[in-house]
Amino acid sequence: MTRMLLSFILLVALSIMGKLWVTPLSFAQDALLEASRPDFQRIPIWVRQFGSGTSNGSTSPRFHEPVVPVLKADLKRSQIFTPVDLPATPGKFAESKCVGPADENEATSQGVTVSTWGRVGVGRTDNGGMGLVFDACAHDSGTNEFLLGKRYFSLKVTDPLVRLMAHRWADELVYRYTGEPGIARTKIAYVSEEGNGREIFVMDYDGYGPQQVTADGFLNLMPAWAPDRKSLVYTAYRQRKQQIVQRILASGEETVLVQPASLNITPVFSPNGKQLSYASAQEGNSDIYTLDLDTKAITQITSHRSADLSPSWSPDGKKIAFTSDRGGRPQIYIMDADGSNSRRLTYQGDYNAAPTWSPRGDWIAFVCRISGEGFKLCRITPDGNRQVQITSGKSIDDSPSWSPNGRHIVFSSIRRGKSDIYLINSDGTDLEQLTSEGTHHSSPSWSPL
Prior knowledge:
CATH topology of the largest domain: Neuraminidase
Strand content: over 45%
Largest sheet: 6 strands, mixed
CATH class of the largest domain: Mainly Beta
Oligomer: single chain
CATH architecture of the largest domain: 6 Propeller
Shape: globular
Distance between the termini: 37 Å
Radius of gyration: 24 Å
C-alpha cells in the first residue's frame, strides 16, 4: 500500500398530512422538457408573504417568521426558480380558498412568472383537532390564473415542523414544474468531532437542526444511507478493530454487519439495498467485498497486491467505481458489480480518489489533486471522455456526496483552519457553508428522497 493512499485512508479513517385544493398544473410536462436543457432559464418567482393565522382566525405570530427566508432559499437551491426581490405584500384567502392577488400587473411588469403566499398558525386541523396549520397558494402572474393550493397540518406544534412544511411546499412547486421530486426534505449525515471521539450526526439538507445519532465516545466514521432512509451504516473503531455497523435511526438499534478486522472502511449500500460493499484488509492490502444482507454471504470482488477501496455503485446497480493504486498512484477505476471487467477511468493528475456516482448516472464526482491548488473536487463522465474541475481556491476538499436529484454535491472542506460541511452546485456555483459551530465536521452523506 503506498504512503499516499495510506494517508488518504487515515483521512477518511412526522409524517405530515396534505390536502390538495386544486388540480395539478397543466403545463408541468412542458416545463420538464425545458428544465433539462443547458439553456433553461430559471423561473422568476415572487415569495410574497406568509402571514400569521388560519382559516378559523387563530394566530401565532412566531411561527410564520422563518417561512419566507426558508422558502426563498429552497427555491433558489432548486435551480428551477429565481426568487425576485419585491416587497412582501400579502395574498388573499376567501375562507379556506386561495384568491389571486390584486396587484399581479405590478408583478408582471417586474418580470415575475409565479407568485406564492400563505399563512401559518395554530388552529383547527382538517381532522378536527387543534394543531399547526400551514396554508400555501401559487398564482400565475402572466395568465392571472390560480395554479395551486395546499394545506399541511399536524397535531404537533413545533418550530421544526414549520420549516418542514415550508420545505414541503417548495418541493411541491419544484415537482409541478419539473415532474421530479424536490430535495428540500432530505437529510445529510456527517461526522463531528466530540471530545476524543467522532460521532455521527444528521441535519437537514440546509444545515438546520443537527441531531446526534451516536454517542459512545469511540470513532464512528464514514456514514452512508440505506436506500429507504431508515438506517445508516458506518465504520466503528472499537478495541483497536474496525467493524461495520448498521443503526436504525428511529429506534437506535445497532447491528454489526462486518466483524472487526484491521481495516473495514467505506461501506455503501447497493441501489436496491440488498448488498453492502466495503473495503477490508484481510491479508495486508485492502480489497473490495460485498455482503449479501439476506444470506450474510461475503464475496471478495477485487484481489490485487495494491489497495482497493471507496466503492460506489452506479444507479442501475450494474457497475462499481472505486479507488485503487494498482497503477502506482491512486486513481478511479470502474468494474462490473461482480468484480469483472475492471478498467481505469481517470488519467489526469497523479491523485484521484473517493468516487461517488451521480443518481442520474451521468457523472462520477471524486477528489482530485490539482497542480498548484491541492485537493479539490472534480467530476468525470463514466466513459472517461470528459472531466471537469468543480471546486477551486485555498481549501482541502474531500468526501463528495451527490444530492438525490444529481444537481448538487455536499462535501467536507478545510477552510480557515477547520473542516466543515459545504454544499455546491455540480457546476461549481453557489457554494454554501452548512456547519460552523464546534470543531471539525467531515464525511457527509446525502440521504435518498
